[in-house]
Amino acid sequence: MNEPPKEFLSPKTLIPPAGYSHIAKVNRGTIVYLSGQVSSDASGKLIGEGDFEAQAEQVFRNLKIAIEAAGGTMADIVKLNIYLVAEVDQAAVPKLRAIRDRYVNVEQPPASTLVVVSRLARPGWLIEIEAVAALEA
Asked: CB–CB of 8/134 below 8 Å?
């Protein structure tokens, strides 16, 4: 069996993706689910209050810590679910993508979903990201 452990696909018959893959196919390995990460540090302190870019940066730092604790790397992430509160201006999305692109494999980006929500669990949080990773066996 010469299939790669994971494949990232974007069929030409779907809308061209902007910085994500339509499909992340895991052929073998260990699946790791990362809970939604927010812009708090290890002590629970909110990082970047009112500053979307600072919060997004902290969230990706937290994702990196989490996946490394599971024995993986950011390149092992196959799916991102991103939740933005409605107060975040749509114009901030390209800034989010620029931050994300410093952390993920841009040649084979994870499948992704971006959802706008009315609020997150704690006041002050502007973004939360959960992830699924596939670690090679």
From this structure: no
Model confidence at 100, pLDDT cuts 50, 70, 90, reads very high
Is 3 in contact with 23 (CB distance < 8 Å)? no
Q: Which of 18, 4, 23, 90 is nearest to 52 (CA)?
A: 90
Helix (H) or strand (E) holding 94: helix 93-101
Q: How far apart, in whole angstroms, are the C-alpha atoms of residue 109 and residue 83? A: 18
CA distance 120 to 15: 29
Q: Closest Cα to residue 24, out of 49, 50, 5, 51?
A: 5
Domains plus CATH for the chain?
6-135 (3.30.1330.40)
Which pTM value belongs to this model? 0.92
pLDDT tens-digit series, residues 110-124: 999 999 999 999 999
